[in-house]
Amino acid sequence: MGINRYGLTFAGTDFGGVMAAAAPLEARVALLDGSQVSTEVAALYDALLADRGVVPNMFKALANVPPLALGITALLKPLMGEGALQGWYKELIATYVASLNRCEYCVSAHRYLAQKRGASFGQIASLEDKSREDGFEFGPFTEKEKAGFRYAALLHTSGHAVNEAAFDAVRAHFNPREIVELTAVAAAFEFFSRLNSALRIPVTPIPGNATHSTD
To answer: What is the CA angle 48-71-212, rounded to 5?
Structure first.
């Protein structure tokens, strides 16, 4: 059983990027650099580099389909920005969903971004319980915040898993705008986790810290 550097444990998998004595896998599509992309995507690269100090590998893969790269960038701004829900909490929801999907890339990226945006060490650590997927239940979260993780876990199973009782449970804590944002973030990271894992997108090192990445 592998134990990754985030504390997330999955049988046979080390989320540090490699299994013991195993070589890292290569991306299944080309990761395009700035000289290989359209003018619009090059401008996106410049903006990402200015904002994050790096062009995330996910965008280098998406650049193979320029309208998709630009469209996903436009989606991420309202999806992960400050809104009805605080940004750090959205990042932790993303991290949690990514962990359920065993997505090394997304766990690395959004764990880092959650910390950067204000999540505490204890909150992050509670999502890293090696023995259970509901470690958040014992972490420094409000009952409202725990309810959001429970909701995300149900959505991970299926949208149909959110029956009336489950929806009433989340509605007891979140207003309609918050529910829409929570649902959108949780659902989006089912997509992003599958995208990055299926294409084997390598974790993007953060400048000056090769042990984490950014999305």
So the answer is: 40
Dihedral (CA of 139, 142, 143, 144) sign? negative
* Domain topology for 25-213: AhpD-like (1.20.1290)
Q: What is the number of helices (H) and of strands (E) in the chain? A: 9, 4
User: CB atoms < 10 A from the CB of 112, how many?
Assistant: 22
DSSP readout, 68-132?
A: HHHHHHHHHHHHHSSSSS-HHHHHHHHHHHHHHTT-HHHHHHHHHHHHHTT--HHHHHHTT-SS-
Q: Report yes or no: 141 and 123 within 8 Å, Cβ to Cβ.
A: yes
Bridge partners (DSSP) listed for residue 10: 2, 13
pLDDT confidence of residue 19: 34
Provide the pLDDT for residue 150: 96
Residue 204: its pLDDT value, please? 87
**Tokens 């014992």 sit at which residue?**
138
